[in-house]
Amino acid sequence: MFHPVDHPMERGWPGRVDGDHVVELAAQTLQSFFTGGGAAREHAVFPLASVRLLAPVLHPPAVRIFEHETSFEFANPAAIMGPDTEVAHRTVHDWLALELRPRVAAVIADRGEIGGFTILADWRAPDLPPPKDRDFALGLGPLLVTPDEAPAEPAVTVRVFGDVVVRESSRAFDWTAARDFAAAGTTLKPGDVLAGPACGVAEGIEPAAVVHVEVEEIGVLSQSVHPYVEIA
Questions:
Q1: 178-181 CB contacts, 8 Å cutoff, 24+ apart
Q2: Which domain holds residue 159?
């Protein structure tokens, strides 16, 4: 999803990245693109440098966070935040240092199949008890790559103010088994997000920090933490 920099839109348009350009697709959302069979007419072409990329799925029906193929927890779909957004969280009295758990995430297409993979930044407030520790921000995006383009065990790097704080290779994860487990006894909807195991933990992320989560062959998700401003 994207919108031209000079024409901001909350929802934006689905698009296909082609080199240093983005091709607008004739679909309202990624979900409608999937339910239309994964094909759509192509419209205008924009230079990649002239657009803002949004979360691939702005309002997923459900978000499931996996640590193993047969174990997941639900997370808050309303907490989805796209690239280049500002994460803010505090208690009544104090701003909190945050944690970030980088993950690879699958997005469900039509008929319960995996439509592609993206990056999920699982933000946590470690001073709060579960599940409220994870209820406020889930970074998603910026790109969705097709299953045949996504590496099986991509390298994951997290940088805070440019300094590497996490560098790991994601472990082997059976996405088909995870999808089948999630679908058992229910119906997966287009746009559902299945996030795989965390690739390390970036701890002690302070207000005003700029954070980049890079996943090999998938992209870079950039977010920042709201600066703390003390009012006298």
A1: 178/66, 178/69, 178/70, 178/72, 178/106, 179/106, 179/108, 179/112, 179/114, 181/69, 181/70, 181/72
A2: 63-225
